[in-house]
Amino acid sequence: MSRKSFTITVLMAILAIPGIGYAQNTTSTNIKKNTVMEKNKSAIYELYDQCINGRNMTLLDNLISEDFPGPRGTHGVQAFQAGVEGLIHAFPDIHYELTSVVAADDKVAVSWQWTGTSTSAFLQYPANGKKITNDGMAIFTFRNGRITAATIQTDRLGFLQAMDVLPTGIGNGPSAPDPATTPGAPAAPGSAPLYFIDKFFVPAPAIDEFMERMKKNRTMLKTMPGFIHDDAYSYKDEDGNLICVTIAAWKDHDAIEKAKQAVQAEYKREGFDMPAMLSRLHITIDRGLYSPLASASPIPAN
User: Fold this and answer.
1) How many CB atoms lie within 10 A of CB 247?
2) Which of 154, 184, 212 is the last residue of a domain?
3) What is the mean pLDDT of residues 238-253?
C-alpha cells in the first residue's frame, strides 16, 4: 500500500469512529457562531462610537437593514436616523458611554449612559439649558450583519425629572402646577407636601378602559380634603402599549389615608374591583409615596 493510500485509509477510519465526525462538525459550527456574534458586537460599537458619537451617519447604510421598523411606518436607515437626529438636535453634545455589550445568537444586548446639554426642545419638552444624564438599554436583532429590529428601554421618569417636567420635590427643578387644573388648598406654611406616584404599564387593547377609569379617579381625588394638585404623563412604546405616570400631591399622611378610605368606599358603592380590572387587562403598576428630597436624610459619601 502506498503512503498516500495508507493516509487516506487512516483518516477514513478515524472519521468512522462514533462521535469524532460530530465533534468536528459541532466545533466548526460553534466557531462560526462565535464569529458572527463577535461581528455583531463590533457593529454595535461602530454604531455608537462612530455613527452617533462621531456623527458619521453615512455608516448607517452598512449597519441598518432596509426593513428596520420605525415610527409612522418608516423603515430602514431613515427610521433609525430620525430618532437619533432628534436627540442630537436637542442635545448637540450628546455622548453615549456603553456600559455593557453582550451577544447571544442573533441578538446583542447593550446598556449605556448618555450625557448631553439641553439646548433645544425635545418632543414637547422645552430646553432647560442643563447637562442631562440618562440611562438606557436595548436589544438589537441582527440578520446577515445588519440590524433588523431594536427593543429600547430608557429611564423615562428620570428624564422627565432632569428636564424639570415633574413637580418640585420629585424632579431636579421647579415645575409649578397649572392653577386652572389644580384646585385645592395649598400646603400649610413650612410643611412639605407628599407625592403619591403611580406608574402603569397598559397593554394597547386596554388603553381606552384604563383611561376612562383614570379620569374618574382623578376627578374624585380632586374633591377630597388635603388634595393639592395632580399631574399625569404618558407615552406609547413601539408596540403601542401605554406607559403612564400619575403624581398626586397631598397635604400630609392623614389626608392620604382618608383619601384611600374614601376611594375604597366609592369602589364598594360602584361594585368596582380595581385589582380584578388590573389583572383582567394585564396592567402592571408600581406605586410609592414620595417626599421632597430636601427633607430627606443626606446620602452618605461612603
Assistant:
1) 22
2) 154
3) 87
Cα–Cα distance, 9 to 160 (Å, whole number)? 73
Instruction: List, edge to edge, every strand of the sheet that includes 284-290.
Output: 227-236, 242-250, 194-202, 284-290
Closest CA to 125 of 91, 84, 169, 155: 91
Residue with cell 432596509: 66
Count of structural domains, the chain = 2
| Same domain flag for 136 and 231 | no
Could you give the C-alpha distances from 237 to 46, 148, 159, 248, in angstroms and in order? 26, 17, 16, 24
Q: State which amino acid sits at residue 233.
A: Y
**Residue 40, SS3 per DSSP:** helix
Q: Which domain holds residue 78?
A: 41-154
Q: Say how far residue 195 (Cα) sits from the centre of its chain.
A: 23
**Greatest Cα-to-Cα distance within the chain, rounded to the nearest angstrom:** 106
Report yes or no: 52 and 60 within 8 Å, Cβ to Cβ: no
Among 38-42, 70-74, 98-102, 264-268, where is mean pLDDT lowest?
70-74
Q: Would you tell me how many other CB atoms lie within 10 Å of the CB of residue 295?
A: 9
Name the nearest CA neighbour of 284 among 273, 275, 292: 275
> The pTM is what?
0.50
CB atoms near residue 220 (< 10 Å): 14
Q: Can you tell me the distance from the alpha carbon of 123 to that of 237, in angstroms, rounded to the nearest whole number?
A: 15
User: What is residue 32's predicted lDDT score, i.e. its pLDDT?
Assistant: 64
Question: Mean of the pLDDT values across residues 66-72?
Answer: 84
Q: Could you tell me which of 114, 83, 75 has the C-alpha nearest to residue 96?
A: 114
Cell of 231: 399631574
